[in-house]
Each structure stands twice: as structure tokens, then as C-alpha cells.
């Protein structure tokens, strides 16, 4: 299976109706576009609450250029989804009735759950909201899938590499026992436990995905990869904690989506269950990330800071299982993928500057 060409997966998806719960965000809209391109029928269900146009428009302390850039990113998401023939329903998955109406209308054959607060920092600030968006929506999803396992052949749950906690070595694989710390990581791990319980109790086909340190176009979640290039463009320092020696398995969104599509297309049905690390598979330092930014924005300011005591010790996520089972082969390292993203960001930021100056 490891040699299955990616473009050959289209026929396996052509008759699938795939619902993405919380799918209007950074990961979700990219996955929706690719699934639609591959021939699947796709519906996004999202309350448009996190990283929303309204939220972005009314943040008073936000710089006008940043507001304009983020608005452009969000509008581009919706424009691409519309032209890609992806359906979108503005519904709140925390409400069983709302989500139930979408299930009845769309009649999915696969469901991808990705509703969540995208930031561990934000989850720590609002733990109640983090649990609601992550776990109440997942409970509703599983309850709606449970009586329809004859029609719904797979539930994919978007987890996180943070469930591993501090890495005990340079790398971890899916057999490592999770040791999550903090609200965000524990909510993700609870979701994993819940979806696996429904599998054993009710016969759901399940897939758990653990990504890491994502970056890519149209993201406004303020991940470190986005903050670095944006700070460079606005004259703010790129903070290198501990000299920038912290390591993360930085992953371009295109590589993650390729793995997700493979996991959806190659799923064996209700008896199948698996967990996959979907990352680049080679951790790099924060200093390496900053170096790419510095090569594109030479005036970027690098500033060292003491290492935060509550930051987890991270490293490489082994992708051997995904390579063997799915034929997953990531293509974009920092020097090409992140550079491409940064160049895109510079162009987008300069366009936002011109628009903000004209407003």
C-alpha cells in the first residue's frame, strides 16, 4: 500500500459524502478544498465563532493592517470554498438539534471532527469554552453517528501532538503513552479516549490524526510560524526562548492535508481503527524557523529570552506508520515550504498595507 499514487485515490472518494465539523478554520477549509478537488461531496458545519470575520472586525487593539490582512485571508477562504463547490452550514455543533439537522440534510458517509479552540494559550484562558467546543461537539457527533454506522463508515478525529506531553527521547511514535499537560492537550486526549470507546462499544470505524506545528496560507491562529513572519514585517522582535533551541516538527498544511486525504480514502470500513502522526517527520529548532524569516526579511529583529518553564519538551514525531499504511510522504521542509509561506505572507501583508492606507 505504501506505493499507492496520490492521484489514484480519487475514485475511492468520488462516492463519499464527507462532513467536516468545525471545518471553516485553517485546517478544515484546506482539507475541504482538496477533498472536493478529489471528487468527494463535502459539507462544512461551523458556527463561525473562532477566527471569524466578525471577531476580527471588532478587535479594537488590532492594527488596521493586521485587521485588513486577516479579513482578506478569511474572505479568500470563503471564496475558494464557494468556487470549489463546498457546502457550508452556519450551525452550532454544541447544539444537538442544530447538528442533527445538518446530518439529516447531508446524510454523510464520513465525518471529520475538528471543532476546537486552535490555541493552547486561548484554551488556558477559557477552559470552559475549550471543553464545550472540543468535547460537547464530539459527544453530539458520536451520538448522531452511533445509530448510522451502516451508512457512516468512518469518523476522523483531529487530535494534536501535544497529547504526548514532554518527549522522553528525540522522537515519539503512536505507541508512546500520552502524558498531556494543560487544558488543550487534555481535551484532545479526552476526545481520543471517547472516540475509541465508541468504536469498541458501537462499532464505529475511527481514525485519530496527530499533527504538529502547522503553518500555511490563510492561517490567522497566531501559531509561532505566523507570528514570526508577521513580527518581522511589523518591526517586533522574534523571541528565541533559550536561544531558540526548542525543537518542533514543523508541518506545511499541504502535507497534513495529503495525509488526511489518504487516511480517508484508504480506510477499510467500520472494523478499522488507527492513529497516525501526520507531520514532516523531522523536528527543527525555533532558531531554524527564525533563520528562514531573516533570509526573507533581513531587518527582522531576533531577541533571546529565558526558556519558559511550562513549555513542553518536543521533538520529531515518527511518521513510519503513516508511510507504511497510507503511503504518506511529506514534501515540504522549512527551506522550501516555510519559505514559500513566508513569501506569500509578505505579498499579502503589503497588499493589506495598501488597502488600509486607502481606507
Describe the structure.
Residues 18-278 form the NAD-dependent epimerase/dehydratase domain. Belongs to the NAD(P)-dependent epimerase/dehydratase family. Pathway: Bacterial outer membrane biogenesis; LPS O-antigen biosynthesis. 46% of the residues are buried. The protein has one domain (6-212, 253-281, 316-331): 3-Layer(aba) Sandwich (Rossmann fold), CATH 3.40.50.720. It has 359 residues and is α/β, with parallel strands linked by helices. The protein is built from 13 helices and 15 strands. The chain has helices spanning 10-13, 26-37, 53-57, 64-83, 96-106, 120-125, 127-145, 182-202, 224-234, 253-265, 286-296, 320-326, 334-358, and strands spanning 17-21, 41-46, 87-90, 110-113, 154-158, 171-172, 206-210, 214-215, 238-241, 247-248, 251-252, 273-277, 284-285, 302-305, 316-317. Helix content is 46%, strand content 15%. α7 (127-145) runs parallel beside α8.
The overall strand count is 15
**What is the CATH topology descriptor?**
Rossmann fold
* Arrangement of strands in the largest sheet: 3-2-1-4-5-7-12
In the CATH scheme, the class would be Alpha Beta
Count of domain modules: 1
Q: Over the alpha carbons, how many angstroms does the gyration radius reach? A: 20 Å
| Distance N to C terminus | 54 Å
Derived from helix and strand composition plus strand pairing, the structural class reads alpha/beta
What is the N-to-C order of secondary-structure elements (H for helix, E for strand)? Answer: HEHEHHEHEHHEEHEEHEEEHEEHEEHH
Number of DSSP helices? 13
Model regions low in confidence, pLDDT < 50 over at least 5 residues? none
* Mean pLDDT metric: 93
The description of the largest β-sheet is:
7 strands, parallel
What is the share of helical residues? 40-55%
Strand content: 15-25%
CATH architecture: 3-Layer(aba) Sandwich
Principal-axis shape: globular
Amino acid at each position: 500500500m505504501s506505493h499507492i499514487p496520490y492521484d489514484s485515490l480519487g475514485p475511492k472518494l468520488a462516492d463519499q459524502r464527507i462532513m467536516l465539523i468545525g471545518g471553516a478554520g485553517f485546517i478544515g477549509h484546506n482539507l475541504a478544498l482538496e477533498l472536493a478537488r478529489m471528487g468527494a461531496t463535502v459539507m462544512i458545519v461551523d458556527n463561525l465563532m473562532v477566527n471569524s470575520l466578525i471577531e476580527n472586525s471588532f478587535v479594537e487593539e488590532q492594527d488596521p493592517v493586521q485587521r485588513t490582512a486577516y479579513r482578506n485571508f478569511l474572505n479568500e477562504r470563503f471564496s475558494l470554498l464557494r468556487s470549489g463547490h463546498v457546502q457550508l452550514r452556519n450551525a452550532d455543533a454544541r447544539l444537538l438539534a442544530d447538528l442533527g439537522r445538518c446530518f439529516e440534510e447531508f446524510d454523510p458517509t464520513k465525518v471529520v471532527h475538528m471543532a476546537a479552540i486552535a490555541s493552547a494559550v486561548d484554551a488556558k484562558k477559557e477552559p470552559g469554552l475549550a471543553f464545550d467546543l472540543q468535547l460537547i461537539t464530539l459527544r453530539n457527533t458520536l451520538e448522531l453517528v452511533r445509530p448510522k454506522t451502516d451508512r457512516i463508515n468512518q469518523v476522523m478525529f483531529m487530535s494534536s501532538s501535544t497529547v504526548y506531553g514532554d518527549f522522553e527521547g528525540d522522537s515519539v511514535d503512536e505507541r508512546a503513552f500520552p502524558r498531556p499537560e494543560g487544558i488543550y492537550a487534555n481535551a484532545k486526549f479526552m476526545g481520543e479516549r471517547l472516540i475509541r470507546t465508541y468504536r469498541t462499544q458501537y462499532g464505529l470505524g475511527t481514525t485519530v490524526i496527530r499533527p504538529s506545528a502547522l503553518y500555511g496560507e490563510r492561517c490567522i491562529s497566531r501559531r509561532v510560524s505566523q507570528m514570526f513572519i508577521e513580527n518581522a514585517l511589523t518591526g517586533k522582535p522574534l523571541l528565541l526562548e533559550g536561544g531558540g533551541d526548542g525543537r518542533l516538527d514543523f508541518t506545511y498544511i499541504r502535507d497534513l492535508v495529503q495525509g488526511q486525504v489518504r487516511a480517508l480514502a484508504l480506510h477499510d470500513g467500520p472494523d478499522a481503527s488507527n492513529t497516525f502522526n501526520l507531520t514532516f517527520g523531522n523536528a527543527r529548532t525555533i532558531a531554524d524557523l527564525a533563520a528562514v524569516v531573516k533570509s526573507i526579511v533581513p531587518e527582522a529583529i531576533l531577541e533571546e529570552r529565558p526558556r519558559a518553564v511550562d513549555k513542553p519538551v518536543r521533538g520529531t514525531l515518527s511518521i513510519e506508520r503513516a508511510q507504511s499504511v497510507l503511503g504518506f510522504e511529506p514534501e515540504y521542509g522549512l527551506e522550501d515550504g516555510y519559505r514559500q509561506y513566508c513569501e506569500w505572507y509578505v505579498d499579502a501583508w503589503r497588499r493589506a498595507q495598501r488597502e488600509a492606507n486607502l481606507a
